[in-house]
Structures are given as C-alpha cells and as structure tokens.
Amino acid sequence: MTQVKARVLSGVQPTGNLHLGNYLGAIRNFVGLQQTHECLYCVVDMHAITVFQDPVELAANTREVAAAFIAAGVDPKNHIVFNQAQVSQHAELAWVLNCVARMGWLNRMTQFKEKAGKDREKASVGLYVYPNLMAADILLYKATHVPVGEDQKQHLELARDIAQKFNNDFNAPEFFPLPEPIIQGPATRVMSLRDGSKKMSKSDPSDLSRITMTDQADDIARKIRKAKTDPDALPETADELPGRPEAANLLGLFAALTDQQLSAVIGQFAGAQFSVLKEQLAEVAVEKIAPIGAEMKRLTDDPATIDAILADGAARARAIAEPIMAEVRQRVGFLGN
Ligand code: TYM
After folding, report:
1. How far is the CA of 237 from the centre of ligand 1 (A)?
2. Can you tell me which atom of ligand 1 is nearest the CA of 152?
3. Hey, is 99 helix, strand or coil?
4. Which sign, positive or negative, has the C-alpha torsion 128, 134, 139, 144?
5. Does 149 sit in the ligand 1 pocket, CB within 6 Å?
6. What separation in angstroms does the CA of 63 have from each of 72, 123, 310?
7. How far is CA 210 from CA 52, 126, 196, 322, in A?
8. Which of the following is catalytic: 77, 118, 198, 199?
9. 3 Cβ neighbours under 8 A, 6+ residues apart
C-alpha cells in the first residue's frame, strides 16, 4: 500500500454563479498548494444533483468550474482536474460510507438544515447523505489535506469521524488518513454584499449579493459601489469589527485581494469613509477577477478542449482510486477482487 506524504483533494459544485467567495475561500488556495502537494481538483457534479439541475446547464456549469480552476492557475497536466461522475468509484465508496456513518452524525449537519429549509420532507435523500459522498471524494484518494472555505469545516470533521470508524470497524488502523482541513487567508467566509450577516452564495436570489467570476469589470465595480455599509467611519482597530459585519467583510476582501493581513488593511483605512475603501476595492477586484473571467470565457468557448482535460484527469484519478477501492472491497468482505 503506497501513500504519498501529502495529497490534496478539493471539490466545487457546478451549480452556476461561481463567486468571489468560492475563489478567495477555496480556488485561490488550490493554486498555491500545487507547489508542495500532489493535487486533485474535482468538479462535483454528483453533489450538484442533490438539488435538481437542468441537464444542459449542469454540463455547461461543469465546464465552467473546470475553466475557473484552470484560469485561476491550476495546472491540469501536473495535477488532476476532473469531474466526479466520470470516476464511478466515488459513488461506490459513498455507499460503503453510507453504511459506516451514523444517522445521528448526519442529523447534526447544519448545511443540510439550511439547504433543506422548512420543508425537510421534500428534500432529496441525496441531500441528506451528501456529506458521506464528500467523505468518499476525499478518502477514495487517501487525501491528507483539503482546502475549503469555513462553511465546509463541519463536513470535514464528519469525514474524519467516518475515516476513523471505518479504520476501527474493519480493523485497519491508519488505512484512511484523517484528512486535515486547510482553511486559510482573510476571506474564509465571504459575506453577501447586501447583508453582512449572510454568506455570499450561489443561490442568493439577489445578483447584487455576489461578484461572480464571469462578471464584467463595470458590474464588479457597480456591485462594490452598491454594497451595504453602516453609517460610521471605518474602524480604527480590529476590536471594533464585531457588530460591524459589512466593514469586516469589505476590509477582509481588500486584504485577500491585495495579499495583506487584515490588521494592515484596518490600519490603512482607519477612520476613513466607506466610499474610499469601496473605490480602491473596486479597482483591485477588477484587476484580479476580470482577467480570470476573460480566461474562463476563452476556455469555455472551446468545450472540446475542456472535455478532453476532464477525461484525461478522470483517467488519472481512476488509476489512483481503483487500487484503494479494491482494498476497501476486500476489507469489507466483498468477493470478486
Ligand atoms: P461549494 O461548491 O459550495 O463551494 C466550493 C468552495 O467554496 C467555498 N465557499 C466559500 N468560501 C468563502 N466564502 C464563501 N462565501 C464561500 N462559499 C463557498 C466552500 O467552502 C468550498 O470550499 N461540499 C462542497 C464541495 C465538495 C468538496 C468535496 C470539498 C464536495 N466534495 C471534497 C472538499 C472536498 C461544497 O458544496 O462546496
């Protein structure tokens, strides 16, 4: 059994409206990890269908997320970019893990509660067991590190619990490494531009709530100009940030986009009006995001090339996954290996 020291896996759902939170919380960190880790980046199309997706849009959104990875700087030759559905071992391992995870564990998942909303009876069964599929995505490759935004922390803890229980149940200590979350930078939880108490999300009905990766320069600037503020001048110290979510969000975004510590940015804008920060934030956001959006467009205009990249990535992912899956089958007691 070979295990590389440090293998990274992360996933992004192709549900449209890929936004600045996805970029700063996750995708941007994917890029840096390529220097030190073997990386697999997955467009998780099987996760997306836990909520109904129009099939034509799902295919287009899958290509768009792959394009975003590549446009942001992920190298699909030296690392692996693929879509989940092309590697059927994800579904296979997920089934085994459905039988390892406990109902009580899943009942605690806050994301399910949020997504299912009030009418839980109408949520798909897939949405409920989604965190088990996510654990399978990671464990199928024995990934050791998982770069994600803050909202995925609980799912990562569950993946660790599942790995541990599998190892115990099947008397296979250390078979699955316990994956470590990498949640880093000043923008691990980017908030809505319309409401600093809500996460920036793909599904918010207001387009003004988020900057998408394909927004044109003037849209980016307009959304930042219209972002919600509070009536006071910008804080002088970090102690003043609690209770001022809009200020915290815009300052955090500026820090992330300019690669600075939040404390330095607070110092830079201490006591200034929001308009001063917004003007500079619009400038750096356009400078960083618009070229990625343009490159995404160039890539998605050539779907055959993206499909070839995903097929090649899937073949290489399968080559890593299959021996691990074979060992899972054998440990569980399935005949036929
Ligand atoms: P998804 O598709 O909702 O989001 C993709 C990544 O973006 C991060 N993110 C944010 N970061 C900061 N601020 C925000 N407002 C924000 N919104 C989203 C997410 O934390 C995530 O890192 N379950 C995952 C996908 C997944 C996965 C995996 C991740 C499936 N399998 C295996 C890691 C490993 C999800 O729904 O992400």
Report:
1. 30
2. 20
3. coil
4. negative
5. yes
6. 14, 26, 9
7. 22, 27, 12, 39
8. 199
9. 142, 177
Nearest CA among 307, 244, 257, 254 for reference residue 276: 254
Fold classification of 7-188+302-332 (topology level): Rossmann fold (3.40.50)
Q: How far apart are CA 134 and CA 128, in angstroms?
A: 12
- Closest-CA residue to 142 (of 330, 5, 310): 5
| C-alpha span between 124 and 117 (Å, rounded) | 12
Catalytic residue from among 5, 77, 113, 115 = 115
1-10, 147-156, 167-176, 233-242: which range is least confident on average?
Answer: 1-10
Closest residue CA from atom 27 of ligand 1: 11
Question: Mean pLDDT over residues 147-155, rounded?
Answer: 98
How does pLDDT run across 167-221, given as a tens digit for each residue?
999 999 999 999 999 999 999 999 999 999 999 999 999 999 999 999 999 999 9
Name the residue of 13, 110, 130, 152 to mutate for ligand 1: max ligand atoms within 8 A of Cβ. 152
Active-site residue, 115 included? yes
CA of 206 to the centre of ligand 1 (A): 20
- Of all protein residues, the one whose alpha carbon is nearest to atom 6 of ligand 1 is 22
Q: Of all helices (H) and strands (E), which one includes residue 43?
A: strand 38-43
pTM for the model: 0.96
Where do the domains of the chain lie?
7-188+302-332, 207-297
Q: Are 161 and 113 in contact (CB under 8 A)?
A: no
CATH architecture of the domain covering 207-297: Orthogonal Bundle (1.10)
> What is the Cα–Cα distance from 244 to 145, expressed in whole angstroms?
33
Angle, alpha carbons 140-146-147 (nearest 5°):
145
118 catalytic? Reply is no
Query: Which pair of structure tokens corresponds to residue 62?
Result: 């899958």
Determine whether the shortest distance from the Cβ of 147 to ligand 1 is under 6 A.
no
Cα(105) to centroid(ligand 1), Å: 20
Query: 280 exposed, middle or buried (CB, 10 Å; 0-12, 13-18, 19+)?
Result: middle
